[in-house]
Each structure stands twice: as structure tokens, then as C-alpha cells.
Amino acid sequence: MIFSKVPLRAWFATLSLGCFGLVAFGMQLQALLRLSPCPMCIFQRLLYLVIGVLALLGFILPAAHPVWLVLVAGSALLGAGVAAQQSWMQAFPELATECGFTDPTLLERLVDMLGMQWPSLFLATGFCTSKEWVFLGLSMANWSFFVFAGIAAYAVILLRRKWR
């Protein structure tokens, strides 16, 4: 089986490059289509970066791979939860309390702080209920949910695999 022949470090490198690539793709899409990311979008971007860094640490320090994989899986599940909430908000905008219309949540405060430090990467200017980009009938939040779920599954599969 190919899975057993690929070194653990290669799996971590692939995950890291994939996450950093997703952030780069999202930023290019944002610039090309003049999209306005919302606080939840920016938080998901931050989680992709966190997962990318954790996977990079797994590449550098593979002996601690269970720790990195548990942290990756936890971050991915958090991301899937945020993406699912945003997907719900987009599906039922009349029922959702829009980001920015109530007292700021911890997530919104974190995104605001990061947006002041690195506006090109973390500035939130959009609304969580808007679907500015749709591909194959799914919004970016919907796609993000599936990607985060895939990352969590990837981490669990790697965690359950016995490495020599």
C-alpha cells in the first residue's frame, strides 16, 4: 500500500504546503474578485495558517507527531465548526445575527486586533451572511467546511497509522 511507503515527514509537508496554498489562493481570489472577507472568513484563514504551522512543526520534529496531529485535528474541527456556522448564517440570513451588529465576540475582537496589525492578511470588511463567491453551487464557507473536515480526517488517519 502506498500509504506505508510514504515517510511521515512527507505527509506533514503536504499538509503544510496545502494549508499555506489555500491561504494564498484565498487572498488571490479576494484581490482578483474584490471580495470582502468577514470576521468568520478571516478566522478560518487564521486557522489554516495555524494548521500549516503545526504541520511544519510536524515536518521539523516528527518524533512528536501525535502531539502535532492532535493539535491539527482540533484546529480543523474548530475550523469546520466556524465554517458550518457561517454556512448556516448564509443559508438563513434572516435568522442570523450579523457579525458587527451586536457586541463583538471574542472571535471578532481577535480578528479586529489581527486586522490592525496585518491588514493585508487579516482585515475583515465584509458580512458573514453574504455569499460573494460561489463555485459549483457552494459558497466559500461551504467549501471551507469540507476542507477542514478533510484535514481532520487526514490527521486522524495519520494518527492511527503505525510508523516505524
Walk me through what this model shows.
This protein is mostly helical and 164 residues long. It has a single domain (7-160), classed as DsbB-like (Bromodomain-like, Up-down Bundle). Helices cover 71% and strands 2% of the residues. The protein has helices spanning 2-5, 8-33, 39-60, 65-91, 106-117, 119-122, 140-160, and strands at 134-135, 138-139. The protein has a two-stranded antiparallel sheet with strand order 1-2. A hairpin with a 2-residue loop joins strand 1 (134-135) and strand 2. The longest helix is centred in the middle third of the chain and has 27 residues, at 65-91. The radius of gyration is 17 Å and the shape is elongated.
Proportion of residues in helical segments: over 70%
- Strand order, main sheet: write it out: 1-2
Number of helical segments? 7
The number of domains is 1
Task: Please state the CA-atom Rg, rounded to the nearest Å.
Answer: 17 Å
What is the CATH class?
Answer: Mainly Alpha
The geometry reads as elongated
